[in-house]
From TrEMBL:
Transmembrane segments: none annotated. It comes from Mycena sanguinolenta. Residues 1-19 form the signal peptide. Keywords: FAD, Flavoprotein, Oxidoreductase, Signal. It comes from the Eukaryota. Pfam families: BBE, FAD_binding_4. Residues 116-296 form the FAD-binding PCMH-type domain. One of its GO terms (molecular function) is FAD binding. Belongs to the oxygen-dependent FAD-linked oxidoreductase family. This is FAD-binding domain-containing protein.
Length: 571
């Protein structure tokens, strides 16, 4: 120090303190009590800029206690439509719980204590683009943890986080059909533009009224123009028209700078690439998405329920299903195939529920296409036909659902199963299903939503994992628990997919297989390749360009390796 002018020392110390402050600021988001967190007066001023649309947020169980009768009914608790009226609610209620906080902070239904857990502190119930822009700028200025939510359906808990500010886009309900839509000078023909809060069932309702159909999920309240599309978006009509991402033509999105960008093949083409499969919640706040639309058509949808006496029988049935899964390719069928087991012991019975959609196919044609599988199934000892129902209707009616049944605790894991496995070694599928059932799985949900146009669309340049293009099915295994489970049990369940079930999936897929990022395990250790395959480096570069300060971080999303599990501190 000797020889330095004392005023210079003061200046250097000030600079050092400031740089340490900057380092601290960059290291962690601000939380209540930390330097830089907005004061009450600053929150009030911000509230005024969003026209009073800032609300405080509580866990759904606490919200229920504020209702006139002091509780939610069981029907309300399990209704996605009802839960969507609660700013802090997640549909899988476990994501509201702060299991990993120290101390853990839970708010259970009918519980005697209630902590805020992983629920945001405030929400901007945005109604305009300006509200979103104000929220983004306020969050940047105060280095807040931001989360985005449209429906709260997220199965990886990515639309909630402790100490966060939620930007809630539920109110973006605009929906419009046009017969002509230009990207640059190219007329893309029939389209539908969906606000980021529009539910899948609203699309089907309006699609029917307009004589159109667009690729969408099989759910009532999933938002096609929010999480669904960014993950890739699968549909029962994907074998006919491709993935949601393949059908997206343009996005309106507010990025981290607060700018509203129009993003398409000609404008911000790099971001256009990322928004189509590069993962939900990592790029900015979507206002709306324009999708290709098609003339509607009739389809036969059917529900067939088969009983299987025990795991050995269920395994044979899974092999048989794998052998027949190409039977329906001529009509580009989509199908959900659930094995649901009643109990966990090896001799507990299962059902196989097949929900099949066949475009432009009459009921009798559909019966004929399913009969070879059905007859072969009934020839297996221990298999029984419990019910079957075929309905011919507008595809919009077939896909429409009134509400989703939610409100429970569960986690899941998944893999995309290559078509080659189904074609070349169907017995491998049955063997793996038997092991999954033996591991204690009671729900194995298969989605025949690939092949056909999904495979043909391999040439499209987007962030969609290439494993989608060679897959035949996306298979999920879920594990549930109820509120009586201990933290130790819950912790074991949360790690069960990685520890026990991934090796079983590997038998069907080979090692290092791909998975659908929207319906998967947020604890995937190599999410970069599991969810994004060879695209991760490119996605990282796009992330740095549009979100240099990592404002939009979600679990297992691009850039999340730089942050702790809550997105609160850099690691
Ligand atoms: C009953 C049910 C059925 C399903 N069916 C299908 C199906 O058929 N096909 C399919 O592909 N998937 C399906 N899914 C999975 C679904 O795609 C994901 O749950 C998806 O994350 C839902 O998106 P969301 O925006 O509605 O949910 P949210 O929980 O609101 O958000 C999900 C993710 O999107 C981000 N996000 C939300 N809003 C915005 C916004 N405005 N801008 C930018 N990012 C935003 C969030 O940060 C989060 O990361 C289903 C899920 C459920 C629960
Ligand atoms: C925001 O302002 C509105 C309208 O004045 C008010 O009702 C609401 O409570 C305020 N929000 C917060 C978090 O203070
Ligand atoms: C909570 O209480 C309601 C009635 O108020 C009851 O119907 C429900 O089963 C209870 N749920 C749990 C998880 O205890
Ligand atoms: C929704 O549509 C209305 C009427 O066309 C329009 O005024 C409004 O700006 C739209 N909102 C958004 C968020 O696009
Ligand atoms: C499941 O098993 C239990 C006990 O064996 C039985 O009471 C119940 O009816 C079964 N449920 C179904 C849907 O088969
Ligand atoms: C359904 O059939 C009509 C009439 O042949 C045809 O125009 C339309 O493209 C078909 N749609 C699908 C999804 O196959
Ligand atoms: C299926 O079984 C039924 C009844 O046993 C029989 O009439 C029919 O010919 C079989 N169809 C095929 C395609 O095997
Ligand atoms: C499963 O059920 C089949 C058909 O009834 C029977 O032959 C077999 O012995 C049973 N296996 C086990 C392990 O229970
Ligand atoms: C068959 O399904 C349709 C459509 O879901 C339903 O309206 C009808 O009641 C069902 N029929 C039977 C016999 O279950
Ligand atoms: C579609 O099905 C409805 C009955 O649900 C029928 O009235 C209509 O004529 C059918 N349309 C076509 C094109 O087959």
């Amino acid at each position: 120090m000797k020889g330095l002018d004392s005023s210079l020392v003061v200046l250097l110390c000030a600079l050092l303190a400031e740089s340490q402050d900057t380092a601290r600021k960059a290291a962690c988001r601000t939380v209540p009590g930390s330097p830089g967190y907005p004061s009450a007066a600053e929150w009030d001023a911000f509230n005024a800029t969003v026209f009073g649309r800032l609300v405080t947020v509580v866990p759904s169980a606490k919200f229920c206690t504020t209702l006139p009768g002091g509780a939610c009914t069981d029907d309300q608790w399990a209704s996605a439509l009802f839960r969507s009226t609660i700013p802090g609610a997640m549909d899988q209620v476990n994501w509201e719980q702060g299991y990993d906080l120290s101390p853990p902070s839970l708010c259970l239904r009918n519980g005697t204590t209630c902590g805020q857990g992983d629920v945001p502190l405030y929400s901007v119930e945005a109604e305009t683009v300006e509200d979103i822009q104000a929220a983004v700028k306020f969050s940047s200025a105060h280095n807040l943890r931001v989360v985005l939510k449209s429906s709260g359906h997220d199965g990886l808990g990515r639309s909630t986080a402790p100490n966060s500010l939620l930007i809630h886009t539920h109110n973006f309900q605009n929906i419009s059909f046009q017969d002509s839509f230009f990207v640059g000078s190219k007329d893309m023909g029939s389209v539908v533009t969906l606000g980021s809060g529009v539910y899948a069932h609203t699309l089907y309702e309006q699609g029917k009224a307009n004589g159109k159909i667009a690729v969408g999920g099989s759910a009532a309240t999933v938002c096609n123009a929010a999480g669904w599309i960014q993950g890739a978006g699968h549909s029962a009509i994907s074998p006919t028209f491709g993935l949601g991402a393949d059908n997206a033509l343009e996005f309106d999105i507010v990025v981290a700078s607060g700018e509203l960008l129009k993003v398409n093949a000609n404008s911000h083409a790099d971001l256009f690439y990322a928004l189509r499969g590069g993962g939900a919640g990592s790029w900015g706040v979507i206002v709306s998405v324009t999708f290709q639309a098609y003339p509607t058509f009739n389809a036969t949808s059917s529900v067939i329920i088969l009983g299987a006496e025990n795991d050995t029988v269920a395994s044979s049935l899974a092999t048989l299903h794998a052998q027949h899964i190409f039977d329906w390719d001529s009509v580009h069928a989509g199908q959900y195939f659930w094995f649901l087991k009643n109990g966990t012991s090896a001799d507990a019975p299962s059902i196989l529920l097949l929900n099949t959609y066949m475009p432009n196919t009459t009921t009798s044609q559909s019966v004929a296409l399913l009969t070879p599988f059905l007859n072969a199934s009934l020839a297996l000892p221990g298999v029984a036909l419990l019910s079957q129902n075929f309905t011919y209707s507008d595809i919009n009616d077939a896909l429409y659902q009134a509400d989703d049944s939610v409100g429970s605790n569960f986690v899941f894991g998944s893999r995309l199963i290559p078509a080659a496995t189904y074609r070349d070694s169907p017995a491998t599928i049955g063997k793996a299903y038997k092991q999954l059932l033996a591991s204690g799985a009671t729900t194995i949900l298969g989605h025949l939503v690939a092949g056909g146009k999904v495979a043909e669309n391999a040439k499209i340049s987007s962030a969609v994992h290439p494993a989608w293009r060679t897959a035949k099915a996306h298979v999920i295994v879920t594990t549930e628990w109820d509120d009586s489970a201990s933290l130790a049990e819950i912790n074991q369940i949360r790690h069960f997919f990685q520890k026990v079930q991934v090796p079983i999936f590997d038998e069907m897929t080979g090692p290092n297989a791909g998975a659908y990022s929207n319906e998967a395990d947020v604890l995937e250790p190599h999410f970069q390749t599991t969810f994004f395959g060879p695209h991760y480096a490119k996605l990282s570069a796009i992330k740095r360009k549009y979100d240099p300060e990592d404002l939009f971080i979600v679990g297992a999303g691009v850039g999340s390796e730089r942050w702790d599990e809550w997105g609160l501190c850099r690691v």
